[in-house]
């Protein structure tokens, strides 16, 4: 992802991207968001929903890695909790996991390059090629 878009995410969601300045041996967020600009809107939406849940429930998630893997957006995270393990945490973790799985599913139907909807997404993924946006370049 281009640095300007990454920076927008870092500024808007500082708690989610708290690990961006850590040494790469401690967190892979130091490599930035390793995906195309076309998934920016999907990632931003997932960040917005995730942070809203964090604020509501009183827990915090920190992203450890954001990348494209197997033609889909993948977001790995740490759950930061001050209290001991509880069922409440399980429920919270399931909610966050659901938000990020939804974003992953959306990315399967979205061009990583331009953000356009992939027509025949199954066929495009099978060939491991982007949509036809690159033909105009």
Describe the structure.
The protein has a three-stranded mixed beta sheet. The protein is 42% helix and 15% strand. It has 137 residues and is of the alpha+beta class. It has one domain.
Topology, number of strands: 3
Largest sheet: 3 strands, mixed
Distance between the termini: 18 Å
Widest sheet: strand order? 1-2-3
Give unreliable regions as ranges: none
Number of domains: 1
Secondary-structure-based class equals alpha+beta
Total helical segments: 4
Oligomeric status: single chain
Based on Cα principal axes, name the global outline. Answer: globular
Indicate the mean pLDDT: 87
Radius of gyration: 16 Å
The ordered H/E elements are HEHEEHH
Assess the beta-strand content as a share of residues: 15-25%
- Measured as a percent range, the helix fraction is 40-55%
Summarize it.
The protein is α+β, with helices and mostly antiparallel strands and 137 residues long. It has one domain. Helix content is 42%, strand content 15%.
Give the topology, please.
Blueprint: H1 3-12, E1 33-34, H2 40-57, E2 60-69, E3 72-80, H3 87-108, H4 121-127
Parallel strand pairs: 1-2
Antiparallel strand pairs: 2-3
Helix pairs in contact: 2-3
